[in-house]
Amino acid sequence: MRNAYSPVNALRIMKFLRVHIMAEEIHDRLKASRLAAGFRSVREAATSLGIPYQTYASHENGNRAFDNQAAAQYARRFKVSIDWLLTGRGEAPEAMPSLVPLMGYVGAGAEVEPDFEQVPEEGMEQIEVPFPLPADMIALQVRGDSMLPQFRNGVIIIVYREQRRSTESFFGEEAAVRTTDGRRFIKTILRGTTGVNLISWNAPAIENVHLAWVGEIFTYFPATAIRRIEKQGGIQGQLRLRA
After folding, report:
1. How many domains does the chain have?
2. Smallest Cα–Cα separation from 175: which of 153, 191, 157?
3. C-alpha angle 49/53/56, rounded to 5°?
């Protein structure tokens, strides 16, 4: 089964945010303000505001109206105009981009041995994605062409840093993987005889290996969709998604 996330899905997420930012309902504008300010969850926003979770949640889901005093507090915290929040008039907020560390390479035909990459903890570069992402994402860059046509050489994939599901639940899916001997690949995972088989679309299978980690793919971008920003000193650079 091919992965459901793609550059098209990324554009749909951006469209979703624009729709909410232009929403006519006050609770939709409150949600758009929270997302644009970088708060990924209702609970995170409530904690930052210092108010009970249920109070804020009821305001955002429209179950309970909020007064001008609460609106002023929300507008200050989310850095939006109180007039826009209450009435929809004026300048709407822009969605805050997400920065994701590029943690090295993943092989599609080429083998990547991360022990020799010496990637710093904060990553080699930063990927800027122009919409909010779930927390704890990392980026990997594809090397090789065994997963053509979907994952071309140079494609940037965004994956969850921690494995969230059992390995067996990934059977039949494409994912980034790390084997127990330290190699990294992007492959389709299938059940093997004594381990798992890693399947390419146009290269021989790697059979009966054991996995230390499976990175669930959230989305990916072609190499032509990003550009490098000149480093401003230190090891931190940046890769920015083209508009």
Report:
1. 2
2. 157
3. 65
Q: Do 200 and 156 belong together in one domain?
A: yes
Residues forming a β-bridge with 99: 128
Residues 32 and 127 in one domain: no
| pLDDT string in tens for the chain (243-residue length) | 344 445 445 555 555 455 444 445 788 889 888 877 878 688 989 999 999 999 999 999 889 999 999 999 999 998 889 998 988 887 777 665 677 888 888 887 665 655 445 555 666 777 777 666 766 788 998 888 877 777 888 888 999 889 989 999 999 999 999 999 888 899 999 999 999 999 998 888 999 999 999 999 988 887 666 654 333 333 333 444 443
Q: Give the integer Cα–Cα distance in Å for 74 and 65.
A: 13
Torsion of CA 186, 191, 193, 196, to 10 degrees: 30
27 burial class (0-12, 13-18, 19+ CB within 10 angstroms)?
A: middle
122 and 216 belong to one structural domain: yes
Residue in the structure block whose two tokens are 């989310």: 78
Closest-CA residue to 161 (of 141, 134, 137): 137
CB 110 within 8 A of CB 182: no
Q: Is residue 158 part of a domain?
A: yes
Domain of residue 77: give its range.
Answer: 23-87
Dihedral class, residue 119 (left if φ above 0, else alpha if ψ from -120 to 50, else beta)? beta
* pTM of full prediction above 0.90: no
